[in-house]
Here is the input.
Amino acid sequence: MFLRHTALTFLLAVWAGNATVACSGSSEPVAPATDTTTSLDDLPREGPSDEAPRPLRFHDASARLGGLAGGGRGVALVDVDQDGWPDVTTTSLERVHLLRGAGEGLFAPWTEFPVASARGIAWVDVDDDGDLDFFVATSSPRHHLFRNDSGVFTDITAGSGLDEETDHGAEGASFGDLDGDGDLDLFLAFGALPMSMLGPDYVLGDTGAPERVYLNDGNGHFTRHVSELLAGRPGGETFQGYLYDADRDGDVDIFSVHDFRPDQLFLNLGGLEFVDGSRDHLPGDGNQPTSIMGLDCGDFDQNGTMDLLGTRRSGDSLYLGFDLEKRYEETFRRIVEGYDATTQLTGWGVAMTDFDNDGDLDILRASNFNADGGASGSEFRLGYMTLFEHIQSGEDRRIVDVSATSGLVFDRTIDGWGLATADIDRDGDLDALVGVDGYGPGVEDDTIRAPLLLVNDGTRAADHRAISLRFRQRGKNRYAVGATVDVFGKAIGNVRVLNIGHSYLSQNDEAVHVGLGLYDVLPAVTVTWPDGGTTTWLGLAAGFHTLERPDDPAAICCSRDGCTTANSAAECRQAQGFAMGIEASCDAACAGWASCCPGMDDAVCRFLCGSDPPPPAVLTCLASADCGGLATCSQSGTLLPGSPNGVGVAPLCP
Here is the structure.
């Protein structure tokens, strides 16, 4: 059995004297709770740490949460009030807690929602008024929708279309524009019946209820859309539907994960017409049971396609690559260096993101105690937090378990479930929040039994740069949920997804976080908006940005001098050459973005990005021309510096 030694007694601060006001279950609005703190000095925080500095390290800052109770699973780190500081949402047995981000990674009480047995939680603007409303799925037959009016929350479940009772308790709640009308619809996943309700002859994987799709009319009223296909496998026990544009055709697809049964990939053909793409695109012809529970998406291998990471109880799954010509490829076991701890840890919440700001994606996961304490004959397991560092050496990629050297909190047992990430203190690196049940079997005295706040204080992330990007558009879906973001820099291409419904029952901050390493500038970022339009920004400096969609739909290229109408990609690349310095432009060329030329091979990239960068004239040529243009550039006498025998740019083209 996999074990770690405990090393520190968990310190839990009791937060006294800060009363909160619960939101009403009626249709009457209730004012937000009064913040009784007068300054940051009044807010709880943890004491000084005696841990040694490490390249990758997290410390336990749960004292900042003021002694919130455990007993919950879903968590969120979402900036509900849009003041720039992520807020904390946690669940417990009897209610949902909301803490306001007060600055510097500290939190003050805001309000509570009287919802018991919460599961998936989602902050989403259902009525397009600019405020983030709140949906809570529960393990009971009833679920809840709260409208947000400038910080005043009203329970509008009755009459919303989401007030029908369900046979089973729900699991994950995901929102996206499934029907292409511009507003955000709901995909609600349903898991297994509780053990207490199962008869002696039940079959694992067959005790679930059909998934449900609810279509939004744009005003926050939903109508159930009945689809035999999207309902999933009969009896399937589903944890999450991940909504993203898997095939990059401009609409929202669904990856639905099931316990003990094969997963399903539903491809959206438009107009609510979906097809099952599982056989063609998932490992094992779509017939391979996985029992994936937590799920995240990102471009792990940095090839410009979206990859999927799923946590399980018998070793995690990493699906690399997707396009219409091939299927996802299972690679997790192949790239783990040494012992794979995930084979002995029942995984739930997960984040695949760049925790050390070096440009590639690392992995943080939570695991729980065996929920039934081994009563069903399964092996009893402890839960731990696990951190994998992504290490590159040329074309070789490995993930290395660095938990043992990344903080004392990784030595402690935890009944961990949901997991969310955000830069809570705005210091340029990502922190994490973990939902903890807290009422499982007590195995060790210092078992973590309340929500866990992990603050990132690794030295590598502090030494590196990062950029944080939020996207806005006018009209419907102003938070651009469903957009796909391509970033170019540090000799890589990378893809991000803006969606609601992450990890397990949880929600990350909306900001797209990109590690830049030692670079100060992100050469280029292109967002494909939910309606298929695109905008490219050039030469963005490290730090925090909110990027507004240009009013002119033809203005596809934006730099520090503003947005311009670009008639071609070449013009946009030329603008890039003027927006950035030589180093960043060269970096973009090596990433394959700044030239249409397919002959830009690795040898040329190494030459271009050597110690002697090309002069500005060459960069302008590379940035603005296709292969034909490169030939013209060569004829004009512009040569690559140091080219033998006066060889110019033209030979780069096939």
User: Anything to note?
Assistant: The domain at 57-463 is CATH 2.130.10.10 (Methylamine Dehydrogenase; Chain H). The chain is about 10% helix and 35% strand. Residues 569-579 form the longest helix (11 residues).
